[in-house]
Design a protein that fits this description.
Helices cover 44% and strands 15% of the residues. It is of the alpha+beta class. It starts with a helix and ends with a helix.
């Protein structure tokens, strides 16, 4: 009976999708049994699409509402389901396995269980990539948000290209440990890139879930701005989903972060992940120090014949790390016309991805 429940959970996770869906291999069951009790797996399988109160889920299980509510709360605390409160009623929803994995590391804890789980997740991810091959992006599911203070005057800067827009718009705000860098540290305590760890930001309802479940902590708008500044000074890249409305912001390093790693595995990373901008140099200010070349997270820059760097647009993601690190202030970002405007919301993004995949 227990094995059947986990098999059903595998099928449920397969339907949810994501880069690492449910797949019938030993590595999947090793990690899923570590995360879910049989009872929790049964409840997860019974949650319909979207968000629902405990009584609806209890009816699907033929269980007592109070008992079901208790299990759902336990699962939300573990980061196995999403939860939020509307008009005084708690609602619960499922999410993809990728997000469940991320939640496990966003707390930044370093227990022996965390280390064990990191090894199980790592083994599963490697097995999936070996079975399916590296992901092939037909349409960019993620995007870079540029360092807008480095955009050249006269260029159009939309609100969705400014992180400050989201900081001002949403309440509450939360910050968590970067799950990519934390997972790497749990796998190997010497594998640390020395970038800041507490840089994973969430906004609005997503932030409230993170705060309520102890996955991160609440921050003020001033602290969010400070974290943004520290991230930029550290050469981290602002990344999120490729839509105009976002609820999270990753500040990614080139050493460990999955968004950059996935883009760099593509034939043309600069088309798979981009901000819609690219760098240009003021020849009167540029000292040919090569700092920008050394700092570029995608190795898109080389020194030109006239001692002015040149950019490979197939590799450039338009992050602006080169510009913020330039000691002479010689670099500005300018618009890149061939980059499409991000879809408005998640529904539009899903449709764009689906259309691209169907078109081949």
């Amino acid at each position: 009976m227990e094995e059947q429940v986990y098999q059903e959970l595998c099928q449920t996770m397969a339907k949810r999708g994501g880069r690492f869906p449910g797949i019938d291999i030993p590595e999947y069951f090793n990690v899923i049994k570590e995360l879910f009790t049989p009872e929790e797996a049964t409840v997860f399988n019974a949650i319909p699409k979207d968000y629902h109160p405990a009584d609806v889920i209890a009816a699907n299980l033929d269980k007592n509402e109070q008992e079901t509510h208790s299990i759902l709360e336990q699962m939300a605390d573990k980061g196995l389901v999403l939860a939020g409160e509307f008009a005084g009623t708690s609602f619960y929803g499922t999410t993809v396995l990728d997000n469940i994995f991320d939640f496990q590391f966003m707390r930044g804890s370093n227990t022996e269980w965390d280390k064990k789980l990191a090894k199980l997740i790592d083994a599963f991810k490697k097995a999936v990539d070996e079975a399916k091959g590296p992901p092939i992006l037909k349409y960019p599911a993620t995007r870079v948000i540029p360092i807008d203070r480095k955009i050249k005057v006269g260029n159009t800067v939309h609100t969705y290209q400014q992180v400050a827009t989201y900081i001002e718009k949403y309440d509450p705000l939360a910050v968590s440990t970067c799950y990519c860098r934390q997972e790497a540290k749990l796998l190997d305590e010497k594998d640390i890139c020395e970038k800041p760890f507490e840089t994973c930001m969430t906004f609005g309802m997503a932030a409230q879930f993170i705060i309520d479940r102890g996955i991160g902590r609440k921050i003020s708008k001033e602290e969010a701005t400070d974290i943004l500044k520290i991230s930029e000074e550290s050469g981290l890249v602002h990344c999120s989903l490729n839509r105009q409305e976002i609820d999270f912001l990753c500040n990614c390093c080139k050493c460990h972060c999955v968004i950059l790693d996935t883009a760099l595995s593509q034939p043309k990373p600069g088309l798979s992940l981009n901000s819609g901008f690219y760098p240009t140099w003021n020849p009167e200010l540029c000292e040919a120090c090569k700092t920008c070349i050394e700092n570029c997270p995608t190795s898109a820059l080389t020194m030109g014949n006239e001692n002015i760097p040149i950019v490979d647009l197939d590799l450039c993601i338009g992050c602006g790390v080169c510009a913020t690190g330039c000691p002479e202030g010689a670099i500005d970002l300018v618009e890149r016309e061939e980059i499409l405007v991000p879809p408005v919301d998640q529904k539009a993004l899903a449709e764009a991805v689906k259309e691209a995949e169907q078109a081949g």
